[in-house]
Write a structure and sequence with these properties.
Blueprint (H helix, E strand, L loop, with lengths): L2 E13 L5 E8 L3 E7 L1 H4 L3 E6 L6 E2 L5 E2 L7 H8 L9 E6 L17 E2 L9 E7 L5 E2 L1 H5 L36 E2 L4 E13 L4 E5 L9 E6 L2
Antiparallel strand pairs: 1-2, 1-14, 2-13, 3-4, 3-8, 4-7, 5-6, 9-12, 9-14, 10-11, 12-13
């Protein structure tokens, strides 16, 4: 099923016809260009590669020398975008599989240079949204896993420690997957069965009921629920 690449703007609230207050995540999804079309003969599945945003290109100074000045798109990316008729290289490229919907559903077809807009969705549809959760660095077990911690009185000095992590004799090792301190957040997360409440085609906005993973201005993928 087709999807779109967007940017999470934040959360707001809208009111439906029944007067109910609905919390929504607002995703800005400017038209995505079809950069590459992948057929089942090449990759085993039918999919398209969409591009979002723009990368800066290397500029030439008066002497004819290119001045990078920060991160610029390299020739391979520029040439890849040029095959689709794009003058600028997209900042983000993501693949969307087309033939993973119901067997009775018709597989959409796209050609290089086509634009995918928010009009592919409609209010009331269910979608799944993939984003990268907020990174919180190295955290302890209380914040990372919700441990209650130890007592605060009676001489206890291990208030937020994890405690014992396994017996010494058997199995004489720490079991894999043990909840311990470590890197918290910054993981790819997909939330399924989210409802689209509103589509603003003029401003390229999608209003999705509930919250999705990621910080403000984080890149998210909105896909139709198969």
């Amino acid at each position: 099923m087709i999807g779109i690449i967007g940017k999470k703007l934040g959360m707001t609230q809208i009111f439906n016809d029944q007067g109910q207050q609905i919390p929504c995540t607002v995703v800005e999804a400017t038209p995505n260009a079809v950069v590459q079309v992948l057929t089942a003969e090449i990759t085993g599945v039918q999919s398209v590669q969409l591009g979002y945003g723009e990368q800066k290109l290397a500029r030439e100074n008066k002497k004819g020398e290119k001045t990078p000045r920060g991160r610029r798109a390299h020739k391979a990316v520029v040439g890849h975008a040029a095959k689709a008729g794009l003058t600028t290289a997209p900042k983000f490229l993501r693949n969307f599989r087309l033939d993973d919907g119901p067997k009775s559903a018709e597989v959409p077809t796209y050609t290089l240079g086509d634009k995918v807009t928010v009009d592919v969705f409609a209010p009331g549809e269910q979608v799944k949204v993939t984003g990268t959760s907020k990174g919180r660095g190295f955290q302890g077990v209380v914040k990372r896993h919700g441990f209650h911690g130890g007592p605060n009185t009676h001489g206890n000095t291990k208030h937020r420690r994890p405690g014992s992590i396994g017996p010494g004799t058997d199995p004489s090792r720490v079991i894999k997957g043990k909840k311990m301190p470590g890197h918290y957040g910054d993981h790819r997360h997909t939330q399924t069965h989210l409802r689209i409440e509103k589509i603003d085609a003029e401003r390229n906005l999608i209003y999705i009921r509930g919250s999705v993973a990621g910080p403000t201005n984080g890149i998210v993928l909105v896909k139709k629920q198969g």
